[in-house]
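INTERNAL AUDIT FORM
Audit reference: QA-55
Scope: verify that the stored structure record matches its stored sequence.
Auditor: D.O.
Record contents follow.
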Amino acid sequence: MFNRDRWKEIMEVLTGNWFRTVLTAFGVFWGIFILLILLAAGKGMQNGIMADFGDIATNTMFIWTQATSKEYQGLPKGREFEFKLEDVATLNSSMPDLRYVSPRNRLGGFGGGSNVIRGIKTGAYNVFGDYPQIIKQDPLGITSGRFINQSDIGEKRKVAVIGNGVKKELYDKGENPLGSYIKIQGVNFMVIGTYKRLDDNNGEQGQKQIFVPFTTFSQAFNRANDVGWMAITANDGASITDLKETVVSILKKNRKIHPDDNRAIGYFDLYEQFNRVQSLFWAIKFIAYFVGILVLLSGIIGVSNIMLIVVKERTKEIGIRRALGENPWSIKLQVLMESVFLTTISGMAGISFGALVIYAINTLLEMNGPVDMFLNPSVSLGVVIGALTILVVSGLLAGFIPAQSAIKVRPIDALRTE
């Protein structure tokens, strides 16, 4: 069935009118190329946005206090307040679906004065009082030493973990900071570790932060049991978005906030934002497939039209073959093979060219540095295999109508055709 004479005939038919064949093939070539480029661009955007999330626990919310907007239980409107450590304990005990409730306090901030001294060098840095689990919610790449542990919390040790940006500004090149001391607002802390952030969300400032035990921070800087804000992560299988309302209600009750006061407590639901981004990715992928397949479909229609013309041109030949006793299925198979061959070859050319363009884009990105929200555009092997499947099926569909038309030709009518 797949003999040399059949393939020779296929090549003669397709090369008989080169210009027409190339124009027909270009429709399929362009359709599959557009499909790959759109999918790669969508993947590049997804990679870039997901890189901004880094390894942070996405099922997390951050919550802080603001001024009250309603009077409640004799307390005035506009009241400033703080969370307390007992709020953390209440959330842990009453909400088993919460995995981590991490209180945090902070010194410094953007535009603040120098608050850290080492020898004759000074710097202005964010200093955070944290519990050990914060590193599981907002991962840091420890480059030397270690992070805060539970013993540091229990014994209120004056230890600190500094970013590589702090190390660069306060220490000489090649100097090992581990075991040395820095002075934070007049209090000495021993450096036990250094880190480099795994993401660039905070840019250079993200590498210029200092972490100390929460209990030590509270004692050294007179914060008592105050909590500036909290990072709250839900267990796997639970959604922090679904738990958010309960968390806020508990905190309102503990801090004597009016239940309808929606401005007293601020929060950022990372999981909700993450899901919105995921929905955007699905929409982008759908649009890529929709547009790409429509363009490809136009190319397939072109192939079908050309095959109809080819069958029309070969009416007399088909009639003679039928008169000589050739099986109608053999003629039908011939037309189908011509259609599949044309779509597959042109489609493979589109895939190859698309791969080269994607490779060139990645090379330019590596040479010129990363682009915001765009990283490593690519398509998976599954997409390529799917594209090849679409090409074969499309070729069969494109050739089906012309093949049916070919076998309907009556030998006597075909022989009369001039």
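Auditor finding: record pair retrieved intact. Residues 4-54+275-416 form one domain.
Action required: none
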